Amino acid sequence: MGHAWLSLVLLATAPAPGAADLNLARAALKQLVELDTSQSTAETTSAAEAMATRLREAGLPAADVQVVGSSPRKKNLVARLHGTGRRRPLLLLAHLDVVDARRSDWSMDPFKLVERDGYFYGRGTQDDKGLAALWVAIVARLYREHVPLDRDVILALTADEENGPDNGVTWLLTHERRLIDAELALTEGGIGELRAGRRVALEVQPAEKSYVTFTLEAKNKGGHSSLPEADNAIVHVAEAAARVHHHVFPVELGPITRAYFQRLAELEGGELGADLRAVTMTPPDAGAVARLSKTPLYNARLRTTCVPTLMQGGHAENALPQSARITINCRVLPGHTADEVARELVGVVADPAVEVAQIRTMEVSPPSTLPPDLVATIERASAAVWPGTAVLPILMTGATDGRHLRAAGIPCYGLTGLYVDIDDIRAHGRDERLLVRSFIEGHDFLSRLVMALAAR
User: Fold this and answer.
1) What pLDDT score does 13 carry?
2) What is the dihedral of CA 406, 411, 416, 422, to 10 degrees?
3) Model pTM greater than 0.90?
């Protein structure tokens, strides 16, 4: 009761980040974006060292700022602010690596931070360097202002969340768990939802879909391209991938997603609200499902999805292909196994010439319980920055490092306070961007939240 009262006081009285805090956050974001930590470079150590330097310059003792990892090029930053220890630590997590971005695909250099038309452009602005920069600025502020803490606050900026072989969270859990062991963790995964510039809701993510990857592969004897044959490996896998692309998995609403759509229906109203409500009926209204499925975010929350993402085939322009392969990435609803998805894909492909093979283990993690006092604290922090905005639990459509923490018994919640237009989500895509206003307001929200969760 006393701590809940103190949280209310902190949320009401905590000043918004000042100019020094905002300047540090912007500088950290610029530095992180302009350090190319994409998978093709296979390197995150430079970013970990750069943020470690910023924290040491902010005054954190060198012993409390560590750069560790599985290899010289794949290191992670772990920093700690010390509290009284009355409660177990709070972990603030973000990843340093980003998905590859080719200059030829973008309208600007993806590894230069560009501020234009009210946005920050650059690879990682949404996923996940924006959050990493905010965590650095917040930890520096807590130290500079000597905020009294009743628990340690740990910052971890890690490698290879985006599919690389040296995942920093799993390495830390296996080799240095003491560095990140915590009562709860906050990370990416829960955005703020904007629609046509209108703030809809703030997401908090206690659970996520599972991630699994398959290949569709066909092989031929090959031959001269002047002597085409009916049996062609590229055609087999292309037609198989097209069938997978057009296949629609059934609608399934778990308790988190059902509650999300029901609450969102109240917030949206009108025809959209009616559809959101109708999709939660038993059975769901088919028309509502069809209309909502046109919005990628809603579609991904309604069902398991599988999509072609990579392709390789042939060996010469004047030769018949001897092999062709297309990669299929699936995001699977809770309660289903990789074997179930594989069987469905085999049925959809319906071609004995195409082999369906699982190439990645599906990692399943339990959902994190959302305690009422944590939800109330999030709501109060949100209300201090965005009065009247609802906080909605969601099932994350993608995968985050939160799954590793949950599997290891550390409750984890995706919560960024970074508002994004749900019809223009550019993470992993061309001209990735983040609203400058969202970055500033997210800084304010996360500062208030961390103080409420950790200060005494």
Assistant:
1) 55
2) 60
3) yes
